[in-house]
Amino acid sequence: MTRIAIIGAGLSGLTAANSLKDYAEITIFEKARSVGGRMSNRRAEPYFFDHGAQYFSAKTDEFKAFIAPMIDDGLVKSWNVRFAEIEGRTIIRERRWDDEYPHYVGVPNMTSIAKHLSRGLKIELGTRVHAISKQLDKWSLTDDLGRSLGEYDWVISAIPAEQAADLVPSSLSIYPQINSIKMEGCFSLMLGFDHALPLDFDSALVRGEDISWISLNSSKPDRKGGFCLLVHSTNSWADAHRDDDRDEVLQYLCEQTSLVIGHDVSKADHKAVHGWHYANAKKRKGDTHFVDTIENIGVCGDWCIQGRVEAAFTSGSDLGRRVLVELNKV
Ligand SMILES: Cc1cc2nc3c(=O)[nH]c(=O)nc-3n(C[C@H](O)[C@H](O)[C@H](O)COP(=O)(O)OP(=O)(O)OC[C@H]3O[C@@H](n4cnc5c(N)ncnc54)[C@H](O)[C@@H]3O)c2cc1C
To answer: Which segments in the chain show pLDDT lower than 70?
Structure first.
């Protein structure tokens, strides 16, 4: 059977794996201790945070069909809450999200979608692929310590653009395109409170500040735990401050949040910050994935299309289909 190594257990890698698993022997390598990538969550009991993707929409029929069984199983639910647009530190527009244009979340957290997709797959967690090289007609993968991770007929990279450009050989025909795409960072501020704050919104887009998003994570469906806020910095602020001392980042984002919501958050019961070097990618037209059919290597990820959950699905699904064609399975 064809052996395929997939690097990355975010939504794009898991989607590609599920498309291919009946036709090839798949091994997924994931550097983190859990699956989900940027659709993951943090726990600091009694507080729970989706610190990456906040929600997602479904525009294409294929993605709608993909999430339909998860909706039936209660694994994905609509987050129907009070949404506000904040500018000049005041709410300039507000509306209620509803089922007419659903804003979906994983239940009981974002990671549950990836966990569901991981069932039955062979996933090596805590394994960072450090290098890949082609010897004769096989790809060899090695980890951080130089240990072999095996030989494969195909390799699929399902990791952020810059990390893919570091890993795939620069001699590949698809390399210049991969290397031309730059992603943007983001800081996630996680705040847990032992009492509820009287907010006029549950989710808010913020303009004109160094923070861009505030959500009441505990207002998402079926969340356990205490009152907690999740705040995102703007991508530009994160890129300008990516190497700053984390305590200073945390303090600054707390100050920004306090100013925007009109409540002092510095006394929160729980405060933490997470930095994403590669959080977001601008919308681009063209290929939804990249593939070199001479060398048997494919590259997918949200960034091929746009920094969105649905884009990660589309990229992984399209690449999976393309590899099946190459394997003469469709
Ligand atoms: C702060 C933030 C907010 C967001 N908000 C939203 C939102 O509200 N709505 C929305 O639709 N989208 C949002 N997104 C984007 C969404 O999360 C992504 O589009 C999607 O999760 C990307 O999936 P992916 O599989 O392409 O990549 P990832 O989820 O990044 O998966 C890549 C995986 O590869 C692993 N990896 C990397 N390098 C290696 C290696 N060398 N070896 C082994 N494993 C490796 C990583 O650990 C990771 O698990 C947000 C993202 C962030 C960070």
So the answer is: none
Residue ID of nearest Cα to ligand 1 atom 36: 8
Report the C-alpha gap between 186 and 107 in whole angstroms.
24
Name the residue of 38, 121, 190 whose CB sits within 8 Å of the most ligand 1 atoms, as the mutation to test its pocket. 38
Which residues approach ligand 1 with their CB closer than 6 A?
7-13, 29-32, 37-39, 52-56, 128-129, 158-160, 163, 186, 188, 232, 276, 279, 301-302, 307-309, 311-312
Domains located in the chain, CATH noted = 3-35+118-181+287-326 (3.50.50.60), 42-110+184-280 (3.90.660.10)
* Residue-level pLDDT at 157: 98
Contact call for residues 51 and 303 (beta carbons, < 8 A): no
Number of Cβ atoms within 10 Å of the Cβ of 223:
20
Q: Decide the pairing of beta strands 154-157 and 184-193.
A: unpaired
* Per-residue model confidence (pLDDT) at position 134: 94
At 222 the pLDDT is 95
206: CB partners within 8 A, 6+ apart: 86, 87, 212, 213, 214, 260
Instruction: Give the ligand 1 atom nearest the CA of 36.
Output: 49
What are the tens digits of pLDDT across the range 74-128? 999 999 999 999 999 999 999 999 999 999 999 999 999 999 999 999 999 999 9
Average model confidence (pLDDT) across the chain: 97
Question: CA-based angle 178:240:306, to the nearest 5?
Answer: 35
